[in-house]
Amino acid sequence: MKEDKQLLVITHISQLLDFVSGIGGFIVPLVLWLTKKDEVLGMDYHGKAILNFRISMFLYILICIPLIIFFGLGILGLIVVGIFYLIFPIINAIKASNNEPPNYPFSIQFIK
């Protein structure tokens, strides 16, 4: 296995493609993880953390949608999730460049 910090950083930053394409922020990290998890040191761990974060945030969005209709609190929830979508990929890209493990709070462990 080789160490490739740049690819780990790109994998984290690629989540921001959601702001441009809608779904690219899930597909690009998924493809990078599936193709490079056996070749790049740390890609398996980082990829799993990213995908668990993405799936968790999607579920939180699904929970917020009915809350908009019933309580109006869903809008606040969507704003918070949007901030998480923007901030945590950047923070974890910086961590990946410093050889630190990623930390995505409120992430449910779907992929272990």
From TrEMBL:
Membrane topology classification: Multi-pass membrane protein
Alphabetical list of Pfam families matching this protein: MamF_MmsF
Keyword list, A-Z: Membrane, Transmembrane, Transmembrane helix
Transmembrane segments: 7-35, 55-88
InterPro entries noted in UniProt: MamF_MmsF
Keyword Transmembrane: yes
NADP keyword on record: no
Compartment list: Membrane
Domain of life assignment: Bacteria
Protein name: DUF4870 domain-containing protein
Taxonomic source organism: Polaribacter aestuariivivens
Lineage of source species: Bacteria, Pseudomonadati, Bacteroidota, Flavobacteriia, Flavobacteriales
